[in-house]
Amino acid sequence: MPVHDVLSKDDPQKMHTLNAIGPFFMILAVVWLFYFVRKDRFPDKSFAYVALAGFTFSVTSISMHTLNKAVVSFTHQPAMVTSVQMLIAVIVLLSMHSKEVLAADRKQMMKWCIVPVAYAAMLNTSLFGYQYLSLTLVTVFRNIAPLITLIVEGFIMPPEHQPKVTVPIVASIGTMIVGAFMFSWTETAFSWFGIGLIVLNTLMAILDRVLQRRLLVEECKDLPISACMVVNNSLGVLPTLLLAMATKEFQGFEGSAANWQDPGVIVLVIMSGFMGLFIGLSGLMCQKAMSATSFQVLQNMSKAAVVFMGVEIFGDKIDSPGRIFGIALSLGGSMMYGYARTLEASKEKDDELKALMKEEKAASTA
Fold it and tell me: What's the predicted TM-score (pTM) here?
């Protein structure tokens, strides 16, 4: 039975993580408390609402990656961490939306029960990846997820909904691939198994998104989001615990028990649960309240900040011109991809508007 290192009270990584994320967590708590008390000051699409959404997304995006890497490194039990995060989400959601969840249509909730399997797989493959790769390397290889998405959606989506393949898209993905290759060429923490987990995580994310999109517009269109999230997290615990058994996490608990009892680790796990809950909420708020370009800028700034956290807290190495150029290409390619997709969406809206105006003009002259 493996015995993991027991954290000291003032373990540097633990203290650095707490010092880096703790203040942001407290500020976020105060800001959202003010929001719930004075919702009248945050009308939709107002400056205050946009600022709240943008700040929350940035903080939660950076914090979630950093916290997940930290708690997996400290506990060595990613499935158990995922289970705790899911239980926190269920408790918070039921405390805030219990009436809405209890009043939800039972037949639609039953149909939704196929989603938690994909949802749990997505979360678990993400956390397991942190066990085999550095935080920076995870960020770099997640940047090439659009390539996997492009291939998969090209097979499973109908022609009219397949993603477009243009020169800017190919160039941006190619830039990210070259950047990933250059960065990882001398990476001592490189693991093909870890890369495989990231690829699997991307596939699970696509499956989860496609399932939810289909159900929300068809079979479960009247199901409130709160009920969907409660079902995802409550039922998602079951396959997660089975995974913990299959990977012998329960058998290794004795070796990690001291770390699980460490007050600092407990705080970090609880913080990760809340950050996971709020990143989904703030992402929806951002997409509703700001332009796609602004949201892409937030996402790319968050990725750069995550790389900084990897270097400062976990000692990730960016110590050669090749690795620096590789990370620059990876982040730059991600920005290019986001910008290209934003231009496509803007052009599609303009074309739809022109077509609508043409139809109205034809109808008025008829």
Answer: 0.76
